[in-house]
Amino acid sequence: MPTFEGITFLGKPTRVEAGTHNGARNKPNEDRFAAFTAPGDRGQPVLFLVVADGVTSTHGGERASDITVRVLEQSLQAPPQTNGRIIPKSLRDRLADAIHCANQEILEAARTDPDLKGMSTTLVVAAIDGDQAMLMHLGDSRAYLIRKSKAYRLTRDHTWVQEALEEGRITQEQAANHPNRHVILRYLGDARGISIDQGILDPARAAVDIEETEVGRQQSRANDTVLT
Fold first, then answer.
1. 57-95: b (≥16 Cβ within 10 Å) or e
2. Domain CATH code at residue 85
3. Is residue 17 part of a domain?
4. DSSP string spanning 67-96?
């Protein structure tokens, strides 16, 4: 994938690379990714990195991830809408709105096609805006910061296992083979509504913040990722 002209992060030109794999069991690949630019709050280009992974326990996971990537790109590249006061919506609001639109389109597609009932997908998005990265995610697709050959996880998994670990109900050893290890608690395609985790990676604080999320101290199971 190309270098995006004029977009830097942490003082370096931004170059995007992407790849995907079916996994050891050669299951259907339901991952989708995209990289594109759209206008930011000050008219400058913002780079969006998107990864969606269809939930394999549901019908239509591939369709759900397809819809998500398409709707985000179309929504964010459309001319900014105003909020009724002739003030353009912020980048944060536009991204959140686009994610909610994707959720609604997934639900509508499932309503019109019984074969797609219950389809869903995870999502992680990084918006590179100047020297900051805005992150939004649902599910267990992750964002990492790579520094000096080390990977630091920036997102928290929305899974039964992660919640149980944090509450002290299971150990790391139990988590690796727990029967609920694939249960995802937040995803797009949820008719009850969605709750999006949001965060900002600021280089001025990154050296402090990432020490608490070094991947070596987290679960080591591989996930779909956005790397910054």
1. ebbbbbbbbbbbbebbbebbeeebeeeeeeebeebeebb
2. 3.60.40.10
3. yes
4. HHHHHHHHHHHSPPPB-SSS-BPPHHHHHH
Q: Which residues contact 44 (CB under 8 A, 6 or more apart)?
A: 129, 130
Instruction: Give a yes or no: residue 25 inside a domain.
Output: yes
Return the structure tokens found at 105: 């389109």
Residue 104 — left, alpha, or beta (φ > 0 → left; ψ -120 to 50 → alpha)? alpha
pLDDT, position 160: 95
> What does the pLDDT look like over 5-35, one tens digit per residue?
667 776 777 778 888 777 666 666 788 999 9
Q: How many CB atoms lie within 10 A of CB 174?
A: 13
Task: Supply the pLDDT for residue 83.
Answer: 57
Which alpha helices (H) appear in 169-214, and where do they start and end? 172-177, 203-209
Q: What is the residue range of 16's domain?
A: 3-142+187-205+220-227
How much is the pLDDT for 86? 52
- In this structure, how many other beta carbons lie within 10 angstroms of the beta carbon of residue 172? 12
Question: Backbone phi, then psi, for 88, in 5-degree steps?
Answer: -60, 145
Q: What is the mean pLDDT of the chain?
A: 83
| Domain presence at residue 215 | no
Is there a domain that residue 44 lies in?
Answer: yes
Residue 128 has pLDDT above 60, yes or no: yes
- For the chain, what is the domain count? 1
| Greatest alpha-carbon span in the chain | 54
Reported pTM: 0.83
